[in-house]
Structure formats: structure tokens, C-alpha cells
């Protein structure tokens, strides 16, 4: 087994946070390529065969632009923070039908002090969110098995934003009203930098994603996508 990521990735991100400007990044571009981008592209390629065993409908895309690894460049057009670079590295292995981060997907977030794996649907549109809520109501027993089983809870917890009030058209006294109020349907697992930079992390991440497969199947079927 080999390491997918080295401590130098987190070292680079810490230095970038302290020097978030174009001049510093240009001077350290080779370091970014060597410590972040190249191992990231290799991780995507290596994960592809593991992902295919979980579902053939999710994609590990190693293209440098528009693929599974998010760009390091921030979109500052509508932000008060004009820092040009992200100080984290994100990977999303999204459903083949998805075109952006709002598609069902498996996710990996690498940031000094904030490392985690996730799976699910982040900020689905109103129609998709309603479809998921209706699926929960239609088969509450299945939703309970998917999200409250020991197999799930030993690995993940549900996370994300929620509505302040019950969504219109749903029983405010429903036994899973807290889940019906969710705006995100995400399973999360906190990780450590030590774990991510250890030998065999690729297999560990694949195991985490496989543990989230029942949730991903529920969400995909709820919004009319194959799993």
C-alpha cells in the first residue's frame, strides 16, 4: 500500500492561507503542482476502480478542468472576500447525470484542521428536496434503516443546513420531522490529517464510500436517478 497524499499538501495549504495573493502563488506554482494537484489527479485515477464497484453511475474524472477535483481558484465576483485562492482541496465524485456540486456525490475535503469525507446531496433544488422528503414519508422504515442503522452510525452522521420551520405540506409531528426539514441530505465523517497521509488511505476512503451506498441509493431513487 502507498500514500495518496503527503504532509506537504497541508503544509502548502497553511502557507497559502498566510500568503493568499497571486504573486506568492506564482512563485510557488511548482510546489502546488507537486504537492497538491499531481497527487490529487493520481488519487482520482486510483479511486476510479473502487468507485465502479460501488456504483457504475458515479464518475471519477481526472481531467484538470471540470473534473472531480475542484479548482483552487475562488470565484470572487459576488464575495466581499477577494482572496484569489481556496485554502482547501475538494474532490467530488458525482453522479453521471450531474453537472455541478448540487448533484448526488461522494466528497473528500482536505483542509488544515478540517478534514472530512461526505456523501449525499448538497443544496438540492426545491423539486429534488421535495422528492426526497416525499420518499422519506413514503417509506419511513427504509429511511430509518438507511440512516439509523449501526453500520451507518458507526461511520457517519447526518449534517447540513435545515429549515427553521417544517416544509409546507408535511406533518410537523412526523417522527422524522428533523430530517424532513433538512435542506442538505449529507452524511459526514470527520478525518485527520494523519489518516489522510497514511499508507492505504485510498482503501479506507473507498470503504467509507461503500458504507454510504444505501443512503446514496435512497437519494438517487428519490430524485429519479439510477444507482
Q: Main traits of this protein?
A:
alpha+beta; 10 helices; 5-stranded antiparallel beta sheet; BirA Bifunctional Protein, domain 2; 227 residues
Description:
By secondary structure, this protein is α+β, with helices and mostly antiparallel strands. The chain has one domain (about 5-220): BirA Bifunctional Protein, domain 2, CATH 3.30.930. It is built from 10 helices and 5 strands; from the N terminus they run H-H-H-E-E-E-H-H-H-E-H-E-H-H-H. The chain has helices at about 5-20, 20-25, 30-55, 125-140, 140-150, 150-155, 175-180, 195, 200-210, 215-220, and strands at about 90-95, 105-110, 115-120, 155-160, 185-190. The protein has a 5-stranded antiparallel sheet. Helix 3 (about 30-55) crosses helix 9 and helix 4 (about 125-140) crosses helix 5 (about 140-150). The longest helix has 26 residues, at about 30-55.
Question: What's a quick, concise take on this entry?
Answer:
The protein has 227 residues and is of the alpha+beta class. It is 44% helix and 13% strand. The chain contains ten helices and five strands; from the N terminus they run H-H-H-E-E-E-H-H-H-E-H-E-H-H-H.
Give me the secondary-structure topology:
Layout: H1 7-18, H2 22-27, H3 29-54, E1 89-94, E2 105-110, E3 115-121, H4 126-138, H5 140-148, H6 150-153, E4 157-159, H7 177-180, E5 185-191, H8 193-196, H9 201-211, H10 213-222
Antiparallel strand pairs: 1-2, 2-3, 3-5, 4-5
Helix pairs in contact: 3-9, 4-5
Amino acid at each position: 500500500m502507498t500514500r495518496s497524499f503527503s504532509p506537504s499538501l497541508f503544509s502548502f495549504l497553511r502557507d497559502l492561507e498566510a500568503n493568499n495573493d497571486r504573486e506568492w502563488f506564482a512563485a510557488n506554482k511548482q510546489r502546488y503542482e507537486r504537492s497538491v494537484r499531481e497527487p490529487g489527479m493520481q488519487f482520482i485515477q486510483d479511486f476510479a476502480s473502487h468507485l465502479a464497484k460501488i456504483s457504475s453511475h458515479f464518475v471519477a474524472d481526472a481531467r484538470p478542468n471540470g473534473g472531480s477535483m475542484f479548482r483552487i481558484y475562488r470565484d470572487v465576483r459576488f464575495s466581499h472576500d477577494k482572496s484569489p485562492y481556496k485554502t482547501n482541496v475538494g474532490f467530488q465524485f458525482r453522479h453521471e447525470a450531474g453537472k455541478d456540486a448540487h448533484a448526488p456525490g461522494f466528497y473528500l475535503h482536505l483542509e488544515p484542521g478540517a478534514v472530512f469525507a461526505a456523501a449525499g446531496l448538497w443544496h438540492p433544488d426545491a423539486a429534488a428536496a421535495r422528492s426526497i422528503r416525499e420518499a422519506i414519508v413514503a417509506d419511513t422504515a427504509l429511511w430509518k434503516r438507511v440512516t439509523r442503522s449501526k453500520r451507518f452510525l458507526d461511520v457517519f452522521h447526518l449534517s447540513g443546513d435545515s429549515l427553521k420551520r417544517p416544509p409546507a405540506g408535511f406533518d410537523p409531528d412526523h417522527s422524522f420531522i428533523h430530517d424532513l426539514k433538512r435542506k442538505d441530505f449529507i452524511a459526514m465523517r470527520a478525518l485527520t490529517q494523519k489518516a489522510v497521509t497514511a499508507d492505504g488511505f485510498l482503501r479506507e476512503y473507498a470503504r467509507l464510500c461503500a458504507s454510504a451506498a444505501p443512503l446514496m441509493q435512497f437519494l438517487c431513487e428519490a430524485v429519479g436517478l439510477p444507482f
